[in-house]
């Protein structure tokens, strides 16, 4: 007992000292506020801090005024600002934050916060700036926020907020100092409250991309200080209030993508400062008001997708000299094209989109006087007459020209050859005539040429074969004759060739098989003859094949069964095809139409597959076919007795002839075998070639069972839809990864042998190496190089991993080098189609290796191939053209690479909850670039520049490097594949950014 009392006393004293210790600095500063400290600690407790930015800094060892993101007032120790944007914080916002009574700036944007916005925030009497944008906050906006007299800026955009805005019957709406409020990209409903009219100092009101209904409150016209008004992409009805015309300071007005009706108010012409005006995709009627020409600063005008009538004002180019983008397509506009003359006054015009109207006039020569900056000229689907003016050749920057579906006559001007940058030329469905000018072969930038449904005559110019990047060529329904020039078959990137409806003759050449990635071939309604070439079987990417209405003869080549991968439509009708239908056609499982009618086919119709569906197959006009009662054919007759007796006599004859033949063959075989072994033995004495690349290591299933401890969970590395990966210790001590295929997944099993064959011949430092395989009836596995540092996925998105800026750049350089090899330096083009962080693996030296580019996702071709395939990649990483056309290509891989790059340096997944609706990772980065790009990059990278003991210029160097990387990413990921650069051009740009960073860092 005597010993116990002093011990308890000592413990008590230590407890008191430990309890008082954190308070001692505060007690020495009389202005300290313990409520602020408690509020900050409560906030810290409620959020998830994956990178430990608060855990390592928000401690009792320092005053909270020195904590990350915390700023105190100069006169007293009170928190006036909490700025934690881009800290990757999760969790929720604690309502205790409302106890920071001196708080004026609360900035928590660009994080991953969830849950509701605490209503207690409305109790902060000094709060001027509230920014919670780019999170995943949900629930309604607290009504208390709309009664904060101190608020100046409110940004709640890009969350999952729901509910409605307060109406006149709700609690008071008093925001007298409010200047900016952005609630865009949420799920808000109800009507737009007229209470915003009470905000006399309001300058920016953004409510777009929600679900607001009802009409636009005319009271908004009283907020005369508005610079920006965005109400687009909602469900607004009614008319555009004339009172909007009172907003004389308005710079940007977006009312697009709603259900607005009625006429465009004349009063909008009073918006003398408006530069951006978007009224497209509504149901507006009436004409374009002449008064709108008074808004002389308009540079971007969207009126497309309405029901506007009347003519386009003839003087609009004079009235809008700063015009850059004029989009009036899909209306009912009539009249003439005399406004083209005035547009020559707009020297910055880049887009002129007038398609799908009812304009009837001749194309003026003044088209050639338009701005040389013009990129897109689209006048399709009107009633435009006359000849195409040669002056269009002056538009040197033109990328896309579409004059299709009009009433144009005459010839194509040879001056078009000056349009070196033109990528798409569409003159289809007109009345153009004469020869197709051979000068078109000088337009080497073309990837699409559509001249179908005209009256062209003569031959197909041989010079078209000079357009090496041509992907789509349609010359259908003209008067072309003679044969197809051989030069066309050298266009290895050709996806679509439509020559139907001409009088072309000759045969299809053997070297047509070089175009292994055709998607569509239509040579129907011509005069082609000869056999159907067996090389058609090489076109394994083709989905549409039409050879009908020609004079082809011979038999259907059995090689066509190799089209099983993709073929959906096959028409060989109205020819002179004889012989039987190949039984293998039953395997063409993707066909929705097979037409073999009106030929000379005979014999039994194959059973099963497509032949069991009368709505898919057409076989009429072949009277010698039999079987397939469901298709209306007679049963096949049984074998005749004559045939039986003939077969018996043949067997009797074989008894006497076969034995001596077999004896001779055996003697010759023995002699040849001895000769081969003799020569082979001599060759063994010569130095052998290096065959290490093709060496196949034999490994048994039993060894794999031992190496993985019977495929135990302890050795499990990863699991996917196609396979499961285990770590394995082979008998010779080698550590590998064993990818065991899912035996129930037929698509994985079908491609196993092809994948191993292809990948065993691909070798590159930055690709995962396949060591061997193990395969039997019930088990298939690939044995791969083991990567001890896992995947880029875990390094980017797990709490216990961290990559610095240089490491991330090295990884992207490694990946780019891998794809440069796959796209440009391997004998065949290899398109990955599923690049994402989990498919980038890191070895012991943190060198990146690309994996998983084989299982039903590997296609080989020549160096310019662009592919058509059926299986998509991973959502968020797929290029946009896959969803619209189903086409994949090297440029699709470039897009996926850029998404990976943006994810690498922002640490945001493209599938993050904050990206919904029309907002994507790329769009989010685009919005921030260049002015606020450092607000969206991974904050750890910026923190790193502060932690490095260097001169103050170090953060600037890091910022410049990150800006350059983001700029590269945005420039390489445009929606149009043709506007993306190739991977062999990405590599040097990426390496230059890295080298610049290293040299500047060393100098600093």
From TrEMBL:
This is non-specific serine/threonine protein kinase. The keyword rRNA-binding does not apply. GO terms for molecular function: ATP binding; protein serine/threonine kinase activity. Residues 1-28 form the signal peptide. The chain crosses the membrane at residues 656-677. It is an enzyme of class 2 (transferase). InterPro entries: Kinase-like_dom_sf, Leu-rich_rpt, Leu-rich_rpt_typical-subtyp, LRR_dom_sf, LRR_N_plant-typ, LRR_R13L4/SHOC2-like, Plant_RL_S/T_kinase, Prot_kinase_dom. ATP binds at residue 739. It is found in: Cell membrane. The keyword Isomerase does not apply. Belongs to the protein kinase superfamily. Ser/Thr protein kinase family.
């Amino acid at each position: 007992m005597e010993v116990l009392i002093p011990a308890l006393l000592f413990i008590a004293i230590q407890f008191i000292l430990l309890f008082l210790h954190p308070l001692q600095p505060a007690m020495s500063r009389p202005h300290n506020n313990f409520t602020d400290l408690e509020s900050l600690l409560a906030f810290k407790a409620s959020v998830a801090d994956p990178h430990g930015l608060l855990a390592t800094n928000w401690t009792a060892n320092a005053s909270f005024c020195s904590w990350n993101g915390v700023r105190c007032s100069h006169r007293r120790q009170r928190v006036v600002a909490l700025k934690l944007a881009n800290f990757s914080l999760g969790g929720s916002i604690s309502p205790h934050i409302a106890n920071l009574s001196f708080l004026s700036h609360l900035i928590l944007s660009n994080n991953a916060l969830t849950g509701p916005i605490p209503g207690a925030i409305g109790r902060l009497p000094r709060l001027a700036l509230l920014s919670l944008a780019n999170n995943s906050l949900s629930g309604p906006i607290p009504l208390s926020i709309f009664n904060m007299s101190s608020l100046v800026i409110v940004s709640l955009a890009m969350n999952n907020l729901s509910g409605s805005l307060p109406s006149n019957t709700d609690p008071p709406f008093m925001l007298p100092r409010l200047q900016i409020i952005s609630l865009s990209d949420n799920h808000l409903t109800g009507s737009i409250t007229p209470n915003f009219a009470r905000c006399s100092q309001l300058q920016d009101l953004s409510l777009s991309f929600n679900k607001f209904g009802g009409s636009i409150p005319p009271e908004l016209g009283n907020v005369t200080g508005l610079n920006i008004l965005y109400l687009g992409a909602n469900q607004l009805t009614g008319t555009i209030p004339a009172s909007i015309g009172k907003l004389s300071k308005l710079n940007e007005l977006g009312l697009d993508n709603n259900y607005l009706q009625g006429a465009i108010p004349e009063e909008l012409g009073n918006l003398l400062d408006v530069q951006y005006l978007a009224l497209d995709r509504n149901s507006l009627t009436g004409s374009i008001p002449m008064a709108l020409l008074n808004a002389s600063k308009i540079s971007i005008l969207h009126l497309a997708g309405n029901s506007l009538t009347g003519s386009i004002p003839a003087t609009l180019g004079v009235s809008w000299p700063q015009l850059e983008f004029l989009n009036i397509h899909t209306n009912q506009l009539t009249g003439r094209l005399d406004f083209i003359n005035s547009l020559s006054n707009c020297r910055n015009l880049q887009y002129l989109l007038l398609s799908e109207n009812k304009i009837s006039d001749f194309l003026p020569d003044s088209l050639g006087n338009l701005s040389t900056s013009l990129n897109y000229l689209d006048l399709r689907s009107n009633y435009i007459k006359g000849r195409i003016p040669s002056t269009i050749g002056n538009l040197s920057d033109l990328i896309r020209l579409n004059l299709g579906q009009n009433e144009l006559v005459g010839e194509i001007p040879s001056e078009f050859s000056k349009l070196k940058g033109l990528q798409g030329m569409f003159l289809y469905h007109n009345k153009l005539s004469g020869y197709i000018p051979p000068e078109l072969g000088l337009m080497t930038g073309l990837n699409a040429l559509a001249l179908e449904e005209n009256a062209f005559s003569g031959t197909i110019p041989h010079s078209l074969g000079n357009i090496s990047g041509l992907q789509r060529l349609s010359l259908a329904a003209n008067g072309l004759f003679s044969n197809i020039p051989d030069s066309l078959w050298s266009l290895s990137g050709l996806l679509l060739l439509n020559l139907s409806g001409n009088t072309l003759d000759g045969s299809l050449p053997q070297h047509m098989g070089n175009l292994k990635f055709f998607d569509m071939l239509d040579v129907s309604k011509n005069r082609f003859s000869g056999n159907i070439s067996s090389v058609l079987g090489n076109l394994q990417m083709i989905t549409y094949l039409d050879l009908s209405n020609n004079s082809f003869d011979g038999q259907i080549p059995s090689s066509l069964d190799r089209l099983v991968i993709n073929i959906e439509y096959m028409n060989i009708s109205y020819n002179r095809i004889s012989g039987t239908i190949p039984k293998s056609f039953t395997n063409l499982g993707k066909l929705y139409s097979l037409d073999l009618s009106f030929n000379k086919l005979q014999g039994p119709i194959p059973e099963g597959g497509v032949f069991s569906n009368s709505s898919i197959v057409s076989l009429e006009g072949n009277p010698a076919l039999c079987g397939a009662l469901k298709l209306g054919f007679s049963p096949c007759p049984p074998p005749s007795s004559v045939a039986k007796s003939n077969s018996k006599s043949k067997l009797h004859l074989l008894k006497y002839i076969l034995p001596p033949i077999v004896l001779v063959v055996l003697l010759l075989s023995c002699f040849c075998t001895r000769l081969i072994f003799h020569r082979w033995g001599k060759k063994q004495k010569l130095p052998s070639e290096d065959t290490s690349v093709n060496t196949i290591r034999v490994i048994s299933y039993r060894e794999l069972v031992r190496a993985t401890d019977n495929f135990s969970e302890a050795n499990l590395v990863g699991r996917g839809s196609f396979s499961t990966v285990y770590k394995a210790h082979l008998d010779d001590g080698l550590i590998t990864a064993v990818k065991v295929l899912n035996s129930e997944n037929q698509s994985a099993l079908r491609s196993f042998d092809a994948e191993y064959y292809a990948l065993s011949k691909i070798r590159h430092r930055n690709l995962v190496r396949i060591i061997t395989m193990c395969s039997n009836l019930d088990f298939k596995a690939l044995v791969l190089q083991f990567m001890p540092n896992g995947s880029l996925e875990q390094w980017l998105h797990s709490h216990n991993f961290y990559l610095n800026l240089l490491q991330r750049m090295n990884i992207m350089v490694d990946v780019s080098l891998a794809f440069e090899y796959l796209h440009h330096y391997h004998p065949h083009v290899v398109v990955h189609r599923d690049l994402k962080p989990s498919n980038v693996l890191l070895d012991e030296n943190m060198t990146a290796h690309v994996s998983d580019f084989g299982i039903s996702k590997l296609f080989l071709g020549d160096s310019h191939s662009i592919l058509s395939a059926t299986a998509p990649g991973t959502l968020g990483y797929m290029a946009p053209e896959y969803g619209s056309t189903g086409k994949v290509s090297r440029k699709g891989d470039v897009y996926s690479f850029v998404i990976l790059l943006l994810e690498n340096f922002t640490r945001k997944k493209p599938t993050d909850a904050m990206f919904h609706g029309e907002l994507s990772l790329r769009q989010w980065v685009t919005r921030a670039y260049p002015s606020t790009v450092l607000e969206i990059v991974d904050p750890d990278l910026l923190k790193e520049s502060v932690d490095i003991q260097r001169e103050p210029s170090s953060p600037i160097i890091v910022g410049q490097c990150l800006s350059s990387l983001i700029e590269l990413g945005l420039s390489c990921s445009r929606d149009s594949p043709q506007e993306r650069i190739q991977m062999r051009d990405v590599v040097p740009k990426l390496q230059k950014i890295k080298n610049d960073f290293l040299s500047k860092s060393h100098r600093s």
